[in-house]
Amino acid sequence: MTHDKAALATDGRYFNQAGKQLDDNWLLLKQGVQDVPTWQEWSAEQAKGGKVVGVDPSLLTSGIAKKLSEKIKKSGGKDLEPIAENLVDIVWGSERPARPNEPVIVLDEKYAGKSVSTKLEDLRKELEKKNSRGFVISMLDEIAWLFNLRGSDIPSNPVFFSYAIVTPEEASLYIDSSKLSPEGQSFLEENKVTIKPYQDIFSDATALSKATEASSTDSGENKKFLISNSASWALKRALGGDDLVEQTRSPIVEAKAIKNETELEGMRACHIRDGAALIEYFAWLEDQLLVKKVTIDEVEAADKLEGFRKKQKDFVGLSFDTISSTGPK
What we know:
Elements lengths: L6 E4 L4 H7 L5 E4 L8 H8 L5 E4 L6 H13 L4 E4 L4 H6 L12 E2 L2 H4 L3 H14 L4 E4 L2 H7 L2 E2 L12 E4 L4 E4 L7 H9 L3 E3 L4 H19 L5 E4 L4 H6 L6 E4 L2 H7 L3 H31 L6 H13 L19
Parallel strand pairs: 1-2, 3-4, 6-11, 9-10, 11-12
Antiparallel strand pairs: 5-7, 6-8, 8-9
């Protein structure tokens, strides 16, 4: 968005939808189409003549921010500027939809295969190897896995809005406490995990950066906090930037990628159950189309398949909405 232009960049999945919903005030940047600039290139082009490009630093990684800054300067712009408050949120005002606040449940160890205390112990061993002060976690799937919790703040994903900080001595989970049942709160307390307000993450990160800087000055040690390469620019800035932060491949990514026997068995079992649901669906579909000569639309077919899946043991939800089609191409 500039003083006189507005552009929306999206990929091929949403070209049709964007084309129908945008009015003449908008330019549609069809990403991946030949000779169409990326949103970064378009932004840099608008910055010509020494202009500044403002961004919400919580919505892009520091790596993306660095490359965008370089593009802006190369095109004749001044720089990339992090904006403390998202300007779109200001426009929303009181009409801005509330952040999802769905319940968070404890994943029983009979499904996880490893306790939270063991996972934290393993993570701390990795922190010791890297000689770091701690790990600030922003990836939602990593937090859900580490603390054996599951949520539904994002449709078709078993995650919940949160941050976490793990140090050699402490583990803190930043989450709206209203999401947690008494059972969930007790579970975290038993595993020596401190519950903190979700919105406190950036102020706490700033406090940690000051403590880290002071400790490094006093002791001469150059221990840094770790964040993953996927962490936001805002989080890195709050922690003190390059001097106090090391970005790395998350040790949790590797730990969660290596499935234990319980997880492997769970994966096999869920594929068997889903296969049974699909077979039941195909049998129903064949009967409807070939025997009863019924006309079925895409929504009815998708709902029926979901119904068969819901009948299976341990069903929680779909990994994505069913994509079904019928009729001429």
